[in-house]
Write a structure and sequence with these properties.
By secondary structure, the chain is of the alpha+beta class. Strand 1 and strand 2 form a beta hairpin.
Length: 159
């Protein structure tokens, strides 16, 4: 093999290897985790998964609707710490308001692929449920450990 053929052969091998490297990089690009993929509790057809999570005071819990059904995250008003702020997807100020809004089809529903989050500032146990699937046992618990700093909380809904 003469010098010209060896150089052409080496360049062809480099092109093949470079092409394979590009294909591998493109196929792995979709495998990285993004903030959209991160959540603490998934919502399947009729269950929160996992049904119970434990966090520290000041931590945010993110729920993600991983099913094709619409869901809510609604605190049981009588099953959260006395000093804690009520929370519900849709931003309702009471359990009754959240139930009424769902029944009147005016808000609170988390569509497939959407997130809802709430930051817990008061230690204790928080029981919550999905309004349309409560009768099917779609209930969950957040246990918040640690000491309360301000006694406030916040929540957000995102896509």
């Amino acid at each position: 093999m003469d010098e010209g053929n060896r150089i052409a052969d080496a360049l062809s091998r480099r092109r093949v290897l470079a092409g394979l490297g590009s294909v591998a990089a493109v196929s792995l690009a979709g495998c990285s985790s993004t903030a959209e993929d991160e959540y603490d509790v998934g919502m399947t057809a009729v269950a929160f998964d996992p049904p119970s999570v434990t966090v520290s005071v000041g931590e945010e819990v993110v729920w993600r609707n991983t099913s094709s059904r619409g869901h809510t995250v609604t605190a049981y008003a009588d099953d959260i710490p006395e000093e804690a702020e009520f929370f519900a997807s849709g931003g309702f100020e009471s359990e009754a308001a959240a139930r009424k809004a769902y029944n009147q089809n005016v808000g609170g529903l988390i569509d497939s692929g959407q997130n809802y989050s709430h930051t817990f500032e008061v230690p204790g146990e928080y029981r919550y449920f999905c309004v349309p699937h409560e009768s099917q046992g779609m209930v969950g618990t957040v246990v918040v450990e640690g000491e309360s700093e301000a006694g406030s909380s916040s929540d957000t809904a995102t896509e």
